[in-house]
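Researcher: Please generate the 3D structure of the following complex. Treat every line as part of one assembly.
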Amino acid sequence: PSSKTWSGRFNEPVAELVKQYTASVGFDYRLAEYDIQGSLAHARMLGAQGIISQEDVAKIEQGLGEIMREIHDGQFTWLLDLEDVHLNIEKRLTDKIGDAGKRLHTGRSRNDQVATDIRLWLRAMVDDVVARIRKLQASLVDLAEQHADTVMPGFTHLQVAQPVTFGHHLLAYFEMLQRDAERLLDARKRINRLPLGAAALAGTSYPIDRERVARDLGFEAVCENSLDAVSDRDFVIEFTAAAALIMTHLSRLSEELILWSSPRFAFVDIADRFCTGSSIMPQKKNPDVPELVRGKTGRVNGHLVALLTLMKSQPLAYNKDNQEDKEPLFDTVDTLLVTLEIYADMLRGIKVNKDAMRLAAAEGFATATDLADYLVKKGMPFRDAHEVVALAVRHAVEQGCDLSDLSLPQLQQFSPQIAEDVYQVLTLEGSLASRNHRGGTAPAQVREALKRAKALLA
Ligand code: ARG
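Model: Done. Output below.
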């Protein structure tokens, strides 16, 4: 007969391949520490309520403490035969302390147990991820601070649009990450609720105290409905959606770093330790890290779709389908943590080629809008000014020069309202300085934004 905890009603042992197919211990062993925390809180509550004796509680605490150390020291043997992290730990406990171990599962099911474990684990991971987002934001702030005045072309449609400062551009990513952190902290409120007490699906007939367990485990509240508590994984999906957005933001920045580090742009140089060479082309220095970030974004997006698909057809309450929530979730967290860590360091290794940025901004008629605004300030309706400047740009393209290279008489052919002071608005610095309002690219505003960013991080 099989030693399975639940094998009493079966006539033959589970087929070997089925055992492998249904087991989750190969990955859910990662929940062990949280499984033990949950069990300790549950056991203490059972004791406090007189459902099990205080001697049993003491034995359970001692046994689980030993098991925790065995796991930490790598001395614990995980058995596929015992299916998952929960049954592995429970069996070891019973081997150690006998009947007291067998009483631990009173008023509990693996269904509310696993939901609790994932919530405890994910809550800790949210805090890790947010801490790393903060580190990355600090890197962005440091780099932006060095480049509050550095002019670069701002793009729309990847065509030169208007001058911006590199600091302003970097702080755009600070904002994205700020929302990402907010999203995670908001999701954390819904992660931080206790399923235990729901038991298999309907609750339990023992006089349990769920609030006590919730307090013990640091949960803000209990899940209100037992069927919902054991079956929904919306909090996992929510987290993964937030993760996919973080990766998406980093993927956009990666795309820019890849472009900017191409010799055709030559705006930045990524430190050698983040790049690799080619086995055939001796001259190559490839931006592997940003490329992999871009690539791994697809992987996290895939996990989000996998989890949504996992949930969509499950009738209430728990179904084994839910065991499939773990690998996508674990991989999402692993990918996210390492990506954020590497990124913060990579930004610190970026060298900026101010001359190349400046040249690109100067070459692309980036101040054409400024010329139109100049004419508007002289009384011309904006649409007419737009047309006048378009003709001037066309002329400059034909001449192969920039607007600021045209002489005053040449410019005046397009509008007699143009005067000597036009050259102030045609300069990159003039254009930047004029966008001087909250959220604008003027260096003075970038410095204000940096102050706000630093206050948020402090
Ligand atoms: N390993 C399972 C999971 O991850 C634990 C819950 C199993 N419950 C059950 N009744 N089969 O979902």
